[in-house]
Design a protein that fits this description.
The chain is mostly helical. It has eleven helices and no strands. Helices cover 78% and strands 0% of the residues. The longest helix has 31 residues.
């Protein structure tokens, strides 16, 4: 038990170090923290007070809620997948496997790092949105609490999926770009950017199977006026269902992801890592 606890503690320390190090690179700061908040703030301010038809919500507020959902999905899926694929190729995962309980510490480090990153990204979206975007407000203490638990369950449900995706990438540089296509497609059909009630029935059914729809629903419940619920599928926020579906995805994900990571780690060897490095050098990376 002590060995496992020490591995988790070491992982949390490493995750904190990696998080702090991310602020020393301008490209990582801009791309990881500032780019999406800037894009959606500009869109929201340009749209101004134009109202969404059928609800007392401004388009700008809806875009800010969509931006928060997209930011969480991108960090939980695409970022985790890319980091895992890259560190498999550069030997980081192989070194973790060679250390007692190293994979447990590695998982703790990555989970903590992503949670810290997403917390900062969330704050950079919510704070200016509440200050400058009409109709975008935390609905009191209840809204703040809703946003907190939706955020936590969102990352817990998405990170294991990102791990599984990263474990399947043969080339993390090109593969990460390919994973963006289905991720963006899922965002578009999940009612994140526009009301899902305007979509075909089979699209609505498909969207409700995945966590992205429920994350977006929970974010909107926390940050948009109560009248906006009229545009949702049942005319309500369905918060118990949001919590239940995301918790189920988290439980299943954390049951499946470690098994996938162990299988991937067993296939890795020093010669495979060296061959991957040589291929990367030939491609000019």
């Amino acid at each position: 038990m002590n060995a496992r606890a020490n591995a988790v503690a070491a992982g949390l320390s490493r995750g904190w170090i990696e998080f702090r190090a991310s602020f020393t690179n301008f490209q990582e700061v801009f791309g990881g923290y500032l780019l999406m908040p800037t894009i959606f703030m500009v869109i929201a301010l340009l749209l101004g007070r134009e109202s969404v038809e059928g609800a007392g919500t401004s388009v700008g507020a809806l875009m800010m809620a969509a931006g928060i959902t997209m930011q969480l999905v991108m960090l939980g899926l695409a970022t985790v997948a890319q980091v895992l694929g890259t560190e498999r190729e550069d030997g980081t995962l192989l070194r973790a496997r060679a250390t007692p309980h190293g994979l447990l510490g590695y998982a703790a480090a990555k989970t903590w790092h992503v949670l810290l990153m997403s917390t900062v990204a969330l704050a950079l979206m919510v704070a200016p949105g509440v200050l400058f975007v009409d109709g975008f407000v935390l609905r009191g203490a209840a809204g703040a609490l809703t946003l907190a638990w939706v955020f936590a369950l969102a990352m817990l449900s998405l990170a294991p999926i990102g791990c599984v995706l990263g474990a399947t990438l043969n080339n993390p540089r090109t593969g990460a770009g390919l994973t963006m296509v289905p991720v963006l497609g899922l965002i578009m059909v999940s009612g994140v950017m526009s009301p899902i009630t305007a979509m075909a029935g089979w699209v609505q059914d498909l969207a409700q199977f995945f966590p992205v729809y429920w994350i977006g629903l929970g974010v909107r419940a926390a940050l948009l006026p109560a009248d906006h619920a009229a545009l949702e599928l049942t005319g309500t926020w369905q918060l118990p269902q949001v919590a239940g579906v995301l918790a189920l995805w988290a439980v299943v994900g954390f049951a499946v992801a470690p098994w996938v990571l162990r299988r991937m780690a067993r296939r890795e060897s020093g010669s495979r890592v060296q061959a991957a490095r040589e291929r990367a050098m030939k491609r000019g990376y």
